[in-house]
């Protein structure tokens, strides 16, 4: 069998591991693919920085040349970022090469262009590693849940922030301390913005939503709130209700009305399957019409886990090429509107420091009622200077809930809105 | 495009749902497959028992005729059991039809013959629905974790017994009461043997082990213990250690020495991801070399979830046929020996009723030491008539652990071995 030739663009932590696996597992891969799988070349910016184990004779700085070279069948992009990755991927697709990518930012920003090119040139574009690292998730959603209708996807898709929140939950630490510790242990970067401001999670949410609902969704369509405002008090409040604070990517379909995609901190019941996701692990919980509730759990990042997902895709596209076939095309036939965040139905947890006077509870309840929000539970704690009301609402639109909170902020009897957080995941 | 013609063998709860999905989702399926997907016929034993929604003109009692008919491309077997399913599947494969099956008992008993026939005739045999119902599990293991090495698989693969144990854990009930309740609610059958004696779980364990380790494993190779001896006391003992009793299918590879496959009750930490699997849900926890720890969770059984898995397989094999390709063949190239249960390394929890005398603890500890078993923790409870020793061992061979327990049973100071259970899942 004519070998399948693989070009690698980028050779950082993940790329190096992909090289290692391709070389070490070559017999296994050949058996799986039905033909030998060969490394055709490795494009890097800094050849002097190439790690041990990477065959120096294959290294080049001419990425576009490699991506469009006649002898190459598959291009693996593990550079990340928008450019030059986008141009390289388009170059590869237009030259009839299949592409495997781990690039969440690019797919969330311009997936449509790339999927369109793959469709037009009849080649595969696979991207399992772009969301939730090692967890086989995207291909099961694309291929196993075909014929099913997905209603909702709830995900913990960023290991850094899950680690931080888990530390806050376990040790009662504040956000700043938990972040410092995460950085010291290598779970968070020196500049943690992409993670703690949820840009990373928002890109992944867009990719998940697009796949789940067959409709175009970009990162700009995702309502995004990071974890920088989560306090030890929020975490303690959750614990008191047997809940845990997680930052969740939530993708919902409202029939044919539209889809809503958001990322924000939320309290979920500790007994929810997502509640048991500790440390830097990821998990994606799917609610589908026929399959029911499913969850996929595993390592969200790291060289070996991510490389494992890339390898799974390499084998799949290689087998497709050997068989003269291609995988299921990305379809966005539903073309559903993106619904505004204000329309999203959710629940709020609100903690108020109030003046300890008769009638405060009634006034606060009236404020909720005025906005059409029902209260599920209220707890009054403390007295005098320390009087606190802890309220959990029933489901209402986010617009109604947030304007209630705004009214409360300026309410005469409310000294401070100490904590506000959405409540999700009641199953 | 020439339509892909699907024959259904069996039309019970799952078959009826498969028919419904094929008819209702036909446009979606055609888009996914690249050709129309048509129902060619439905073979049943009792035409008078066919449910509403099933096209009567397609119903026949000639199953073999339908399975080998010239116009049929794909045969879906949802009859279950060994015969006539085996003969029908072999007949279909030998006639060049691809086969989709949900038949765990058959695959666990004679998978090798069926995979061999599929290989020989160059057609697909897919069986996602045979293990863990709706959860996309087998295809991710076969296709996404290719090139990875799986060390261990731990699974909750039987919803009936997980439901019963969950009830015992939540309500402190004894086994008999929990079983009666499960039967009343439809979670357990009138004759619950296949579930509570772990025959169902053992078949699934064999299928998982074969797939994970690329080596032949049949149900007979699986060490099997059901849940009928699990007591409320065992469950309480687990709770006191912040553990929970689950019945686990455990598949382990010991390098190239061999594989060990077993199903039995075990205590696992409540914080283990498998510890959060409630009610009749299933989950399979995989430990792989590159991917790390993964877990797949979802509904293990039920008409709609199982039909959803069958449909995913139908689409995959249909696409393969349209593309003139076939899926990855089942390989059992590793041909590893099956290791005896006695060699399996595990840990024990032992609760002993002892005479309340000085030196009993030392004597008991000595008994463990004599068998080469180290003790991790001992707790002494009660006194006088109620003196109890609760022991958790370190890892040792099952042979050493069980002979220790046998010695203790006849030990002068031990009045009764009140509880013995393996402890697993420390991550």
From TrEMBL, chains A, B:
Matching InterPro entries: ACT-like_dom_sf, ACT_dom, Asp/hSer_DH_NAD-bd, HDH, HDH_cat, NAD(P)-bd_dom_sf
Enzyme Commission identifier(s): 1.1.1.3
Pathway(s) it belongs to: Amino-acid biosynthesis; L-threonine biosynthesis; L-threonine from L-aspartate: step 3/5; Amino-acid biosynthesis; L-methionine biosynthesis via de novo pathway; L-homoserine from L-aspartate: step 3/3
Binding site for NADPH: 104
Record-annotated ACT domain positions: 349-422
Any single biological process term in GO: threonine biosynthetic process
Taxonomy, superkingdom: Bacteria
A Pfam short name: Homoserine_dh
Catalytic activity: L-homoserine + NADP(+) = L-aspartate 4-semialdehyde + NADPH + H(+); L-homoserine + NAD(+) = L-aspartate 4-semialdehyde + NADH + H(+)
Gene3D superfamilies xrefs: 3.30.70.260, Dihydrodipicolinate Reductase, domain 2 (3.30.360.10), NAD(P)-binding Rossmann-like Domain (3.40.50.720)
Entry's Gene Ontology molecular function annotations: homoserine dehydrogenase activity; metal ion binding; NADP binding
Cofactor: a metal cation
Residues that hold NADP(+) according to the record: 9-16
Oxidoreductase keyword on record: yes
Residues forming the catalytic site: 204 (proton donor)
SUPFAM superfamilies according to UniProt: ACT-like, Glyceraldehyde-3-phosphate dehydrogenase-like, C-terminal domain, NAD(P)-binding Rossmann-fold domains
Keywords: Amino-acid biosynthesis, Metal-binding, Methionine biosynthesis, NAD, NADP, Oxidoreductase, Sodium, Threonine biosynthesis
PROSITE patterns documented for this protein: ACT
Residues that hold L-homoserine according to the record: 189
Function: Catalyzes the conversion of L-aspartate-beta-semialdehyde (L-Asa) to L-homoserine (L-Hse), the third step in the biosynthesis of threonine and methionine from aspartate.
The family this protein is said to belong to: Belongs to the homoserine dehydrogenase family.
Designated name of the protein: Homoserine dehydrogenase
């Amino acid at each position: 069998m004519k070998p399948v030739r693989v070009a690698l663009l980028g050779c950082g932590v993940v790329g190096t591991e992909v090289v290692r696996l391709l070389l070490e597992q070559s017999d296994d891969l050949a058996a799986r693919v039905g033909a030998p799988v060969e490394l055709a070349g490795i494009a890097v910016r800094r050849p002097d920085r190439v790690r041990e184990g990477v065959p120096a004779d294959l290294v080049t700085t001419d990425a576009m040349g490699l991506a469009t070279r006649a002898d190459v069948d598959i291009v693996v992009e593990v550079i990340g970022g928008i450019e030059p990755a986008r141009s390289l991927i388009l170059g590869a697709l237009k030259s009839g090469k299949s592409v495997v990518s781990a690039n969440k930012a690019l797919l969330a920003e311009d997936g449509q262009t790339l999927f369109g090119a793959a469709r037009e040139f009849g080649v595969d574009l696979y991207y399992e590693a772009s969301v939730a690292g090692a967890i086989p998730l995207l291909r099961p959603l694309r291929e196993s849940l075909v014929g099913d209708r997905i209603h909702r996807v709830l995900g913990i898709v960023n290991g850094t922030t899950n680690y931080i929140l888990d530390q806050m939950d376990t040790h009662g630490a504040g956000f700043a301390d938990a972040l410092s510790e995460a950085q010291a242990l290598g779970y968070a970067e020196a500049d943690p913005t992409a993670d703690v401001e949820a840009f990373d999670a928002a890109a992944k949410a867009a990719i998940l939503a697009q796949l789940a609902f067959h409709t175009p969704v970009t990162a700009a369509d995702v309502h995004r709130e990071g974890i920088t405002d989560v306090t030890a008090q929020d975490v303690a409040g959750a614990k008191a209700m047997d809940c845990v604070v997680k930052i969740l990517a939530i993708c919902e379909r409202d029939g044919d009305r539209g889809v809503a995609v958001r990322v924000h901190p939320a309290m979920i019941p500790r007994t929810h399957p997502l509640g048991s996701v500790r440390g830097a692990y990821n998990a994606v919980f799917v609610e589908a019409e026929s399959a029911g509730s499913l969850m996929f759990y595993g390592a969200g990042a790291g060289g070996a886990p991510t490389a494992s997902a890339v390898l799974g895709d390499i084998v799949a596209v290689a087998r497709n090429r050997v068989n003269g076939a291609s995988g299921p095309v990305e379809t966005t036939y539903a073309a559903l509107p993106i619904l505004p965040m204000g329309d999203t139905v959710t629940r709020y947890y609100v903690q108020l420091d109030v003046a300890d006077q008769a009638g405060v509870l009634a006034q606060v309840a009236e404020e909720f009622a005025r906005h059409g929000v029902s209260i599920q539970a209220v707890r009054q704690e403390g007295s005098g200077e320390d009087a606190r009301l802890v309220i959990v609402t029933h489901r209402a639109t986010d617009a109604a809930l947030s304007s209630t909170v705004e009214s409360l902020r300026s309410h005469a009897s409310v000294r401070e809105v100490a904590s506000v957080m959405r409540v999700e995941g009641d199953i």
